Amino acid sequence: MASQYKWETIKEFEDIRFEYCEGVGKITINRPRYRNAFTPQTVQEMIEAMDHCRYDENIGVVILTGEGDKAFCSGGDQNVKGVGGYVGKDGVPRLNVLDLQKKIRSLPKPVVAMVNGFAIGGGHVLHVVCDLSIASENAIFGQTGPKVGSFDGGFGSSYLARHVGQKKAREIWFLCKQYSAQEACEMGMVNKVVPFEELENETMEWCKIMLERSPLALRMVKAGLNAELDGQAGIQELAGNATLLYYFTEEAQEGKKAFLEKRKPDFSKYPKFP
Ligand code: S0N
């Protein structure tokens, strides 16, 4: 896909490309030889890039995608799957993709899955946890767990069911069938389907619109939508955002000032809204 955007490398990695353009951070899984399957190292690199996106004030929206026109991501690399998880270069088995899922979910900025081919297994779960999914017409979606000796009973099941409903989520997991981009869109787990050549342009158009919106409003609404499903962890995030906003008020400043000035705080002048 020829890009009309001038992507600048933020940091060099082995398994991913991490780039920036016009307020957007783009993370591309760069293992096309394995249909962009992830190893513990790939995941670790994505975690580092997501963390960068969190702290970089120039980045307002993040795109997650895969290299080439064959796959977004085909899940865990079966070549390094050992007993107890995916074995990294250090010989330790891990399932660190769960940490990546949590990073995507709690990043206080929208994350868009730009699905350019197969989104399968743990790769399917990655698009599920992204805030929005834009797919090319050649994209194919599905879970393989019960066929290949794995499953994701966390976000990969419960959050998927929120998108497509319980019956359909069970079908996706129990039968391990593959679905076209159009079917995925009709099910409610993809926002838009476009020809492959238009995928990046369309995704960037969506990103540009979000970049024009209030970042705090986007942050709060993402936290609110997550909170309903994420129990105490979701409430913690939403409440943390409320605290952030409270810190901006004079009323909160008065509490701190009074402590430092060794006097009683005077909150009497602050409004008690109905
Ligand atoms: C993606 C598929 C459908 C593509 O088929 P296609 O186009 O016919 O290509 P192939 O010839 O099959 O593949 C080309 C080459 O790429 C290699 N390859 C493909 N996928 C993988 C992979 N996942 N790991 C390693 N190699 C892969 C092929 O082997 C082939 O190589 P050569 O040329 O040497 O033969 C098709 O490839 C496919 O079905 N792939 C496997 C999909 C799969 O089952 N993935 C693993 C699913 N499991 C997980 O992701 C585990 C993690 C997980 O589920 C989980 C568990 C708990 C909590 C969270 C998670 C989570 O991940 O979220």
TrEMBL record:
Q: Which coenzymes or cofactors are required?
A: hydrogencarbonate
* GO biological process annotation, one example: menaquinone biosynthetic process
Q: Which GO terms describe its cellular component?
A: cytosol
Binding of hydrogencarbonate, residues:
Q143, T144, G145
Which reaction is the catalytic activity of this chain?
2-succinylbenzoyl-CoA + H(+) = 1,4-dihydroxy-2-naphthoyl-CoA + H2O
| Annotated site (Important for catalysis) | Y86, Y247
Entry binding sites for substrate:
35, 74-78, 86, 118-122, 144, 150, 247, 262
Offer an example of a GO molecular function term for this protein: 1,4-dihydroxy-2-naphthoyl-CoA synthase activity
Listed A to Z, the keywords are: Lyase, Menaquinone biosynthesis
Which InterPro entries does the UniProt entry name for this protein? ClpP/crotonase-like_dom_sf, DHNA-CoA_synthase_MenB, Enoyl-CoA_hyd/isom_CS, Enoyl-CoA_hydra/iso, Enoyl-CoA_hydra_C
Instruction: Name the PROSITE patterns for this protein.
Output: ENOYL_COA_HYDRATASE
Q: Which domain of life is it from?
A: Bacteria
UniProt-recorded name of the protein: 1,4-dihydroxy-2-naphthoyl-CoA synthase
What's the source species for this entry?
Rapidithrix thailandica
Tell me the organism's taxonomic lineage: Bacteria, Pseudomonadati, Bacteroidota, Cytophagia, Cytophagales
